[in-house]
Specification:
This protein has about 450 residues and is α+β, with helices and mostly antiparallel strands. About 55% of the residues lie in helices and about 15% in strands. The radius of gyration is 50 Å and the shape is rod-shaped.
Length: about 450
């Protein structure tokens, strides 16, 4: 439980809030302590100044009462004589508590006019915060009036503040905990569902229901991508299954023909030399077909593993196009397909001639596969702006927009026939040669594949 994301997320969130609240509380207490002390000292300065002025003004009259002044100010009042034995205004400092002369620094008081200090009055055990103001009559200083208040009162102030902050802090922690729990469920719920879906995918079950996450945040993006991944894996598994079936069929057909002719030759069934030569030709053609199929699979594996070597040589595109064109002339005549070649320039490029020929041959093979008998196929060559273009156009059924990206996937075939490797290899080879393969097609209007290669 404690290692789960559902527990750790709210725990980290609440701990962060608690730490931030604790730091804020400590800072607030420190600031309030300084503020309360400064305010108290300012009050004590005003009281000490006012009391010393009153006593100086009332000299000779017994009209002042220290008790009444203390009741009015709420603080304790003391008198500290400048020297021992001096009694200023005999009988006038009524009720003021006496402090010994050494309780204050007379020199500092004379220099600064007012001093701040802490002391413990005689007979008490509490520490007081005090301000001393000189008591003067004319130019003569007789001592100092001291206004003081217990430091415990300051602690009571910030203790009250701490209690209120603690209540606010606990309330904030509760609110943060509820919010963290809610957010954790909103986040971890889809994540746990995706985790369970990932377990299903890991076990090979791709038919899963990926949870729908509302919004456009990272979790929703993850759910969308996971669903796309599961769909791709499902399609890949289906393509691989179709590929195995297609390859098995493609391999079985030539192997069956080869085995039949070999057994006929071995058992002496074919005695006519011409028939024997025909059987050997069939064996050679079927072996070549097998070699081409195995070569396609190996080429695709090398391209996927980035272990494909590309040669650099001068390639006469006109001659290469003639070779590709001539290879399909017989099939065009047999099927009465209008087969034309259009050469608009004779560029020479630096590339891998065999691989360029392989791309063009794959494009032509795809065109002949989908063009009906009596149709039309055009092979054209042009150059311009540092780019050579080879286009193969046919009058086949065309390609739907949603299938234009799939046709370049390995093992995918629109009708389930063939291996689905020709266009995939052509596209990968074009990229490996520094070019690209483009397609333009409309259903019912045929297709046009164009290979674009750099001159150098």
């Amino acid at each position: 439980m404690f290692r789960s994301l559902r527990f750790r997320l709210p725990a980290i969130f609440v701990m962060g809030i608690a730490l931030a609240g604790l730091v804020a509380t400590l800072v607030a207490i420190g600031l309030f302590q300084d503020y309360a002390r400064d305010q108290s000292l300012e009050e004590l300065r005003r009281e000490a100044r006012g009391v010393s002025r009153l006593y100086a003004e009332e000299a000779g009259r017994e009209t002042l009462s220290a008790r009444r002044l203390e009741e009015a100010t709420g603080d304790k009042l003391y008198y500290a004589p400048a020297e021992a034995g001096i009694e200023p205004f005999p009988g006038q400092l009524l009720g003021l508590r006496r402090l010994p002369p050494e309780a204050i620094d007379s020199a500092e008081l004379e220099a600064s006019g007012v001093i701040t200090f802490e002391f413990t009055p005689p007979g008490e055990d509490r520490v007081y915060l005090a301000v001393a103001h000189p008591l003067r009559l004319g130019a003569q200083t007789f001592g100092a009036v001291v206004a003081a208040k217990p430091k415990a009162e300051l602690r009571e102030r910030w203790t009250t503040l701490v209690q209120r902050l603690a209540l606010a802090f606990m309330g904030g922690i509760i609110v943060a905990g509820v919010l963290a729990w809610y957010l954790s469920r909103r986040i971890t719920g889809p994540v746990l569902a995706l985790s369970r879906a990932a377990d299903e995918v890991a076990e090979g079950r791709y038919e899963i229901d990926v949870p729908r996450v509302p919004g456009r945040d990272e979790v929703a993006h993850l759910a969308e991508r996971f669903e796309e991944m599961a769909t791709r894996l499902r399609e890949t598994e289906e393509l691989e299954r179709n590929f195995l079936m297609s390859v098995s069929h493609e391999l079985r057909t030539p192997l069956t023909a080869i085995r039949g002719h070999v057994e006929a030759l071995r058992e002496g069934v074919v005695e006519d030399p011409k028939l024997a030569a025909d059987s050997l030709d069939v064996i050679a053609l079927e072996a070549e077909r097998l070699e081409r199929l195995v070569g396609d699979v190996l080429d695709l594996a090398k391209l996927d593993a980035h272990r494909f070597t590309v040669l650099s040589e001068e390639v006469d595109m006109k001659r290469l196009l003639d070779r590709a064109y001539a290879a399909f002339g017989g099939e065009a005549r047999r099927r009465e397909i209008e087969y034309r070649q259009d050469v608009r320039s004779r560029p020479v490029i630096v590339s891998d001639g065999d691989r360029v020929l392989q791309i063009i041959s794959n494009l032509l093979a795809n065109a002949f596969r989908w063009t009906p008998d009596g149709g039309r196929i055009d092979l054209s060559l042009s150059a311009g702006n540092g780019t050579v273009s080879v286009a193969v156009a046919d009058t086949g059924p065309g390609i739907a927009p949603e299938e234009r990206e799939r046709i370049f996937r390995p093992f995918w075939s629109r009708d389930g026939g063939g291996t689905g490797l020709g266009l995939a290899i052509a596209s990968e080879l074009a990229t490996a040669l520094g070019g690209r393969l483009e397609v333009a097609s409309e259903p019912g209007s045929g297709s046009r594949f164009e290979l674009k290669l750099p001159v150098a």
